[in-house]
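TICKET: design request
STATUS: open
ATTACHED STRUCTURE:
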């Protein structure tokens, strides 16, 4: 097995086209969390009219400049703006019109005085303070201008983004359909939850973990198996998954043991076949990357820590190309709580738990065997230790790359 670096592995797969996700139109009520498949342009100005920021009176600023308790300005009320309606009022010097927050402004308005800075006697308005009155006007199109580009394809729509689209006049958008990713789980020792176990058997968890992570990334996972460690059975499962899905992940069997059939089965499945087998990284050294036509096929190690970290590191950027999307997550800057010492001959990814402290965020390394699932259950992110460095000292600032999650709760 000739191992390559993570960067070389991704570059090798980038030479091959992947199947592109289809698109569908959805209403904005179903758009949160979806990935845009089109450029979005505002259909309307936001706001579409000049409006007041406060409850008060529309005025001509020059009429009230310098007003105070000892020297108030006196104006004549000429009408009222009703919320949600246009107005035909026009202000002239010495006049004022009552306006609510968000109300349309009469023609000629150059300032708004707050209602608490005034008194009224019939149609006479007494202004005691007009400081900053010109700053209380929201101009038309001050938020968004019609025709303005709002979002590019590949953007994941947040709740606020959905709100912006609605304000800009859109009712629906084109988003990518969720590509189906088959997850073939292998292992004679695996038993599904709820079923009785015998000595030497373990609960199947990798498939559920991988499917949950894929869903958080925006894909539609479909699990196959557990499949016995038999070459013919694995080949049949892979063929079945390829016929139903846009990509396939095989959990387990990617190493070089006598019952590790994934490399041979994938090599026989079609062209161009296996592109990368083995990386100079830990955990996840035996990972396998392949293409069958335009369908990515990945063999992940059976150890859960290795599987999930390689899913985030290699599989995610490959699959996101289906959306014409580059995987470039914003790292979280944190101070390393304790030192990390590793083999300098490999690139390492260390799961960390992020915690708040008086000095800011700290990253607590979660060290142990790659078979220990609790490491991932408590990890928020991982830190990359470059090949040749041998580790990090306690207290240095590091970039922690967050694991994919459907929702952030804290």
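STATUS: resolved
RESOLUTION: sequence designed for all positions
ATTACHED SEQUENCE:
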């Amino acid at each position: 097995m000739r191992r390559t670096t993570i960067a070389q592995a991704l570059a090798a797969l980038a030479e091959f086209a992947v199947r592109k996700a289809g698109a569908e139109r959805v209403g904005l009520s179903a758009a949160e969390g979806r990935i845009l498949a089109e450029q979005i342009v505002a259909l309307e100005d936001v706001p579409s009219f000049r409006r007041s920021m406060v409850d008060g009176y529309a005025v001509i600023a020059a009429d009230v400049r310098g007003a105070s308790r000892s020297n108030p300005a006196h104006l004549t009320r000429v009408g009222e703006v009703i919320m949600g309606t246009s107005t035909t009022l026009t202000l002239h010097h010495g006049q004022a019109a009552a306006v609510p927050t968000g109300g349309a402004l009469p023609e000629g308005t150059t300032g708004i005085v707050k209602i608490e800075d005034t008194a009224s006697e019939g149609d006479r308005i007494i202004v005691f303070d007009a400081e900053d009155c010109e700053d209380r006007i929201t101009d038309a199109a001050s938020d968004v201008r019609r025709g303005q580009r709002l979002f590019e394809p590949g953007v994941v729509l947040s709740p606020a983004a959905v709100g912006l689209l609605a304000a800009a006049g859109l009712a629906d958008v084109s988003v990518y359909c969720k590509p189906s990713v088959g997850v073939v789980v292998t292992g004679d020792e695996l038993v599904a939850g709820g079923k009785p176990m015998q000595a030497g058997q373990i609960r199947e968890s990798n498939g559920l973990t991988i499917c949950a992570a894929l869903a958080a990334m925006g894909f539609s996972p479909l699990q196959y198996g557990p499949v016995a460690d038999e070459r013919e059975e694995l080949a049949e499962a892979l063929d079945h998954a390829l016929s139903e899905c846009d990509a396939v992940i095989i959990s387990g069997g990617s190493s070089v043991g006598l019952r590790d059939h994934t490399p041979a089965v994938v090599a026989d499945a079609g062209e161009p076949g296996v592109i990368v087998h083995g990386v100079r990284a830990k955990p996840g050294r035996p990972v396998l990357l392949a293409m069958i036509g335009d369908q990515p096929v990945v063999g992940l190690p059976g150890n859960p820590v290795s599987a999930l970290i390689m899913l985030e590191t290699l599989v995610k950027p490959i699959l996101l190309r289906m959306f014409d999307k580059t995987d470039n997550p914003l790292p979280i800057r944190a101070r390393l709580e304790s030192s990390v010492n590793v083999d300098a001959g490999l690139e390492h990814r260390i799961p960390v738990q992020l915690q708040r402290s008086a000095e800011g965020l700290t990253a607590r390394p979660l060290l142990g065997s790659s078979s220990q699932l609790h490491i991932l259950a408590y990890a928020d992110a991982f830190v990359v230790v470059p090949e040749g460095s041998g580790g990090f000292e306690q207290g240095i600032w590091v970039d922690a790359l967050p694991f994919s999650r459907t929702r952030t709760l804290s």
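CLOSING REMARK: The chain has four domains: 6-21+178-323, 23-46+148-176, 51-138, 332-402. The radius of gyration is 30 Å.
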